[in-house]
Amino acid sequence: MNPPISNAVAAAPLVPPSPMAELWRDFRLNRGAVAGLVLVITFLLLAILAGVISPHSPIEQYRDAILVPPAWEDGGSTKFLLGTDAVGRDMLSRLIHGTRLSLAIGLVSVGLSLSLGILLGLLAAWRGGKTDTAVMRMMDVLLALPSLLLAVAVIAILGPGLANAMYAIAIVMLPAFVRLTRATALGELQKDYVIASRIAGAGPLRLMCSTVLPNCVAPLIVQATLGFSTAILDAAALGFLGLGAQPPTPEWGSMLSGALEFIQSAWWVVSLPGFAILLAVLAFNLMGDGLRDALDPKLKR
């Protein structure tokens, strides 16, 4: 016979899972989201280890190896696994270093837009009245302009360059963060725990930053994740137009721009940067969808 279970063990309460464990449990139910997470981790490793794993310098020119096809095609070389471009630069090395640049653009642009969006959104929700109206009408003006046109207008004022492209992309994404923060904060301000904190004497800064803001984080995380894909696309578009990263910087959009004339004679110089943009945008979108399903109680299965 099995030994009797002691009363202490039988009466032991079940320990609830930690928030991170619960998040991962819900997140991994979405196979597409897990695939997106794997791709994002791969891109992060490529960006961090770009200087170690890239076989050549991204700007070094091999004049005796111009438009060499990938290694698996006739005329290819194992020295250049993905071939070379029109001036003899290694495509694999440029794609790897372009990963670092694209992720840096996304991180800086989303970070700037998220920080300013939270500040303006909380200010509009707390102050209300004329402040709320002024902030939201300004966001409506930004939303009324096509995103690429607005980014081009900002760069026309600031001048072309990688840093100015980041500022332009941050301005383009700003309305989404402001509107989301304001809407979430307005919903939280009506709840009992916020009213109790206000009665207890919490000041405006502590009330908004310590009480309201932590409960607005979940949708902002999802929006920031999806904003990465938008930033990568906008950066590639600006680079393609010659307004973003300038040659010889290995940025995917500028690589596409310089390869258009070889679209029929050397497919790899056009297709490979485009495929890298596709994978990066798809990875962040899939991961963002998975985070949305995992963080929103209404969408949990």
From TrEMBL:
The keyword Isomerase does not apply. It is a multi-pass membrane protein. InterPro entries: BP-dependent_transpt_permease (IPR050366), MetI-like (IPR000515), MetI-like_sf (IPR035906), OppC_N (IPR025966). It is found in: Cell membrane. Residues 99-288 form the ABC transmembrane type-1 domain. The chain crosses the membrane at residues 33-53, 101-126, 138-159, 216-245, 265-288. Keywords: Cell membrane, Membrane, Transmembrane, Transmembrane helix, Transport. It holds the Pfam family BPD_transp_1. Gene3D superfamilies: MetI-like (1.10.3720.10). The keyword Kinase does not apply. Its main location: membrane. Belongs to the binding-protein-dependent transport system permease family. PANTHER family: D,D-DIPEPTIDE TRANSPORT SYSTEM PERMEASE PROTEIN DDPC-RELATED (PTHR43386:SF1), OLIGOPEPTIDE TRANSPORT SYSTEM PERMEASE PROTEIN APPC (PTHR43386). This is ABC transporter permease subunit.
